[in-house]
Amino acid sequence: MEKSFDIVIFGASGYTGKYAVREAVKILHNYKWAVAGRNKEKLQSVLKEVGLKNNVELSNVPIIIADINDDKSLRDMTAQAKVIVNCCGPYRFYGEQVVKACIETKTNHVDVSGEPQYMETMQLKYNDAAREKGVYIVSACGFDSIPADMGTVFLQKQFNGTVNSVETYLTFFADDGIKRSGASLHFGTFESAVYGFAHANELGAIRRQLFPTRLPRFQPTLKDRPIIHKEQTIGNRYCMAFPGSDRSVVMRSQRYFFEQENQRPIQMRAYISFDSVFAVAGVIFFGIIFGTLARFDFGRKLLLNYPKFFTFGAASHEGPTEEANEHSVMEMFFLGEGWKETLNEPTDQFIIPPNKKIVTKVSVKNPGYGATCDALLLSAVMILKESDEMPKDGGVFPPAAAFKNTNLINELQNIGYTFEVVKIEEK
After folding, report:
1. For the CA atoms of the chain, what is the radius of gyration?
2. CB burial class (10 A; 0-12, 13-18, 19+) of residue 126?
3. Under a CB-based contact definition with an 8 Å cutoff, are residues 11 and 37 in contact?
4. Alpha-carbon gap, residue 132 to 325, rounded angstroms
5. How far apart are CA 48 and CA 56, in angstroms?
């Protein structure tokens, strides 16, 4: 069947979907694209609002009516697209139906999920079916986890040797130095986090089925840092483990490279940094309350019914203001360690201590929503333009496994992302 559209943005009237439409104006001008959702009036309103803000006429953008609870409408939608850009979360509840429809209609799919249970379940259940149909299902194509996954690939390409371990350090700040009040997360992002914590115990069983064999153990072992620690490389900031999906996504890509490309997998840990030890302690305190409540049904109801109260205003149904988004900046530092030498086989062990270090950095403005949607749309464009450089048979992938050999990093840099080498040290 001939596809009517290159890209369809599904869930375009939601908070993230609206940003995707906004970014589509600058990224998809050479492509045939449409918006989809269950409410025609809301979709028309989004097109009108985005068109006025960008001084462009969008009333001619086609609208497709599709409902997440109507499988036929999903198939009718996916049948018209070469790539579905899925903005309907939490994906734990609303993702699988779209993935299934995409595979049935031979349609590629990208989303911005940061939910390991969903992503790994999709790989477990649908990887073989996606390969049979020759389609790409790629999750984590936004803030979770394009910077971490593609940033790790960037570091490996710049290292010129053998990378043993990578530690990532995430930092947020306002580019004008002004601390703004109000939300920094939309409710949908918060809701995904609540259910992710609530069902974290599912991951063990999923991974045992998905990855029945362990990756080789390499020396020296990358150890966890203390609960709170300072890292001089990033300005002596206070750091703690980052609870997001970055490590899960990166390690899935590393496993793919090991199994399919005979490449030694790295060890990886992810951290987030703060200005003061009090900020870290506050986050840990909140995390204890959040994690405890998320385990129980009544606790989840409290969190979801009163997001502002339990997050001290950080999450709301309105989400962050456009001004707050535009002035937010993300920097992610990558501390890589390994050897300047290479070995013949990826499972070989070095008998000498690591003798090379590298520090790289990925940075971007408006990471949570604007830059997230840029990365999401460019991921869809890579499938359209450079599928010859992607795994040849299709399947369910994390971003780096799908896009390692494409020009995605260059395209990201063209629209505001920065990938750079900070320093290299050799003994």
Report:
1. 21
2. buried
3. yes
4. 41
5. 9
28 closest CA partner among 46, 9, 45, 13: 9
Mean confidence (pLDDT) of the chain? 95
Confidence (pTM): 0.96
Instruction: Tell me how far apart the alpha carbons of residues 79 and 326 are, in angstroms, rounded to a whole number.
Output: 35
User: Do residues 125 and 95 lie in contact, with contact meaning Cβ atoms separated by under 8 Å?
Assistant: no
Residue with tokens 């999709």, as numbered in its chain? 122
| Total Cβ atoms within 10 A of residue 57 | 11
Residues 357, 362, 368, 369: is their CA dihedral positive or negative?
negative
Show the tokens assigned to 393: 């048979």
Q: Indicate whether 178 pLDDT > 90.
A: no
Handedness of CA 300, 305, 311, 314 (dihedral sign): positive
Rounded distance between C-alpha atoms, residue 95 and residue 89, angstroms = 7
Tens of pLDDT, residue by residue over 267-282, are 999 999 999 999 999 9
Q: Taking the alpha carbons of 410, 268, 328, 84 in that order, is the dihedral positive or negative?
A: positive
The values of phi and psi at residue 155, to 5°, are -60, -45
Q: What does the pLDDT look like over 344-382, one tens digit per residue?
A: 898 999 999 999 999 999 999 999 899 999 999 999 999
Q: Exposure of 205 by Cβ count < 10 A (0-12 exposed, 13-18 middle, 19+ buried)?
A: exposed
Res. 179 pLDDT band, cuts 50 70 90: confident
User: Over 90: is that where the pLDDT of 226 sits?
Assistant: yes
Tokens of 211: 């990855």
Quickly list DSSP for 88-140: ---HHHHTHHHHHHHHHTT-EEEE----HHHHHHHHHHHHHHHHHHT-EEE--
Instruction: Kindly state the average pLDDT of the residues 12-35.
Output: 96
Q: How far is CA 206 from the centre of its chain?
A: 20
Q: What is the pLDDT of residue 1?
A: 65
Taking the C-alpha atoms of residue 226 and residue 56, their distance in angstroms, rounded to an integer, is 52
Q: Check pLDDT > 70 for residue 2.
A: yes
Domains, the chain, with CATH or none? 5-138 (3.40.50.720), 146-426 (no CATH)
Q: At what angle do helices 187-198 and 277-294 cross, to 10 degrees?
A: 70
- Give the single-character DSSP code of 219: S
Cα angle vertex 18, ends 13, 9, to 5°? 75
CA 57, CA 51: separation in Å to the nearest integer? 5
